[in-house]
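Could you join me in thinking about how sequence relates to backbone shape in a protein? We need material for that, and I hope you will provide a protein of your own picking. Label the sequence line and the structure token line clearly, so we can match residues to local backbone shapes. Would you write everything just below, so we can both look at the same thing?
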Amino acid sequence: MSATRASKEYFAAVAGRWDQIRGGYYDETIRDEAVAEARVSSKDVVADVGTGTGFMIAGLAPLAAKVFGFDESPEMLAIARKNLAAFRNVQLLEAPGQHLPVEDTSFDAVLASMYLHHAPEPPIAIAEMARVLKPGGRLVIVDADRHNQEWMRAEMADRWLGFGRDQIHAWYAFAGLTHIRIRCARSDCHPVDPAGEKLSLSVFLAYGEKDS
């Protein structure tokens, strides 16, 4: 089975339980930190790539003028529509993160939380997120640092076992972003391995700006 098909099948199967699963791995601390880093204002039009069930958008929608969420899983988006029904400034679109169906320079900020390790080609995904940023726009990505939990490929359809921060810095720079900074997030990710042990995987927060 291809990695793309495995990922789609995994998220289709867990969509109804994803909020509970995700809550065991990481909480709103990561979301709130990413939103603060993006400096979202009431005039901003922003995007969330790899929306899932709407976790990140729930933190963005009260702050922004308009929020677009992109995900290639219709099952996850169905849950997101229920979770975000109270917000009138949210638009959810079924689309892969590497091919966002919007014009260049559409967004004041783009965020992606725990999406990149599912992307088929992470540097292309980052370049695509940079493409849709307005001049002066901010890209904020939260994801796992490089780790060795190989079981996560099969059990969670993870394509990549986290990333080195030097990799992320290079991909941001290649995408034309500046003012790049990458640091530890204030909260780790806590998956439970097949033996039932709760792990602690460090998480990075990456920031970059598109030249104005």
Observations:
- Residues 96 and 157 are 16 Å apart (CA to CA).
